Amino acid sequence: MKKDKVLDSCALLAYFEGEPVGLKVRELLKEAAEKDQELFLCVVNWGEVLYVIEHRAGKAKRDEIAHLMSQMHLRVIDADQELTWQAAAFKAAHKMSYADCFAAALAKLKKAELVTGDKEFHEVEDAIHIKWL
Fold first, then answer.
1. Exposed, middle or buried by CB within 10 Å (0-12, 13-18, 19+), for 104?
2. 5: which residues sit within 8 A by CB, 6+ positions away?
3. How many distinct structural domains can be found in the chain?
4. What pTM value is reported for the model?
C-alpha cells in the first residue's frame, strides 16, 4: 500500500507556475487521478497558494487556480484543534513559517509523506517523512 501524501504550498506553486520541479508534482497529480486517490492539503496551505497567486498574477488568476484545485484529487483538510496543536508545537520548536507548520502537522497526524521543495522543512525531517522535489 502506498503512503498517503500531503502537498505543501511550495509544491503546488511550482506546478502552477511551471517550475521544473512542478513536473514531479504533475506526475503525482496524474497518478492520483488515475488511481482515484486523494492528495491532502491543509486549508492554511490552500489559502497560501491562493494569496501568492493573487499577489503575483491578480484576482482572475487566483480564481482560475482555485477552480483548478477544486477539480484535482486534492482533499483540503480544515485546521481543527488537534492539527493546530501540532502546528503550534512545530512552530514553538523550529524556525519555520506558521503555514509550513500546518503542512508538517498534517503529514505527521496522517502518517503521510510531505511533498515539498521548501528547505525550511529540514527542520522537521526527524519528525515526518519528506518526499523532496
1. buried
2. 28, 39, 40, 112, 113, 114, 115, 131
3. 1
4. 0.94
Phi then psi for 97, rounded to 5 degrees?
Answer: -70, 155
Parent domain of 32: 5-132
E-strand ranges in 1-133 read: 5-7, 39-42, 74-77, 113-116, 129-132
Q: What is the CATH number for 89?
A: 3.40.50.1010
| HSE-CB of 45 using CA atoms within 13 angstroms | 33
Report CA Rg, the chain: 14
Q: Is residue 4 left, alpha or beta, with left meaning phi > 0 and alpha meaning psi from -120 to 50?
A: beta
Per the structure block, which three cell numbers stand in for 88?
503550534
Q: Residues 46-95: pLDDT tens digits?
A: 999 999 999 999 999 999 999 999 999 999 999 999 999 999 999 999 99
Q: Taking a C-beta distance cutoff of 8 angstroms, is the pair 91, 79 a contact?
A: no
Cβ neighbours of 95 (radius 10 Å): 7
Cα 85 to the center of its chain, rounded Å: 18
Distance CA 53, CA 24 (A): 20
